[in-house]
Amino acid sequence: MHELSIATAIVEQAGELAREDGTDAVAAVTVRVGELAGVVPDALTFAFEVARDGTPLASALLVVEQVTAHAYCAPCAEEFAVGMPPFFWCPRCDRPSQDLRSGRELEITAIEPVPAPP
């Protein structure tokens, strides 16, 4: 399960980013995962729960934003979802596309610190 190594990297990177912002207590980490990234969101969430144990992110939640894969057809200027399994033929003009616009993302987009006590 390669999601565990990805989750471990997320925990490490989120911890570093939080420390740079002056905190080490993290409430939530938001990641964008593309449809074609080869990552199973449920497996990543489970792996994150394992990877965060014993770290400053021990109680942090992982929020996964799934990104649909889209391709672009230059001849007819059509952007379309490629689906799973991916199908790169333009539904408008029936030509193949080689321009993948989204769907391979795997990135941290937000880190929410634990609120300071009043």
Automatic annotation (TrEMBL):
NCBIfam families: hypA. InterPro entries: Hydgase_Ni_incorp_HypA/HybF_CS (IPR020538), HypA/HybF (IPR000688). It comes from Streptomyces tropicalis. Ni(2+) binds at residue 2. Pfam families: HypA. Involved in the maturation of [NiFe] hydrogenases. Required for nickel insertion into the metal center of the hydrogenase. Belongs to the HypA/HybF family. The gene is hypA. Keywords: Metal-binding, Nickel, Zinc. Zn(2+) binds at residues 73, 76, 90, 93. This is Hydrogenase maturation factor HypA.
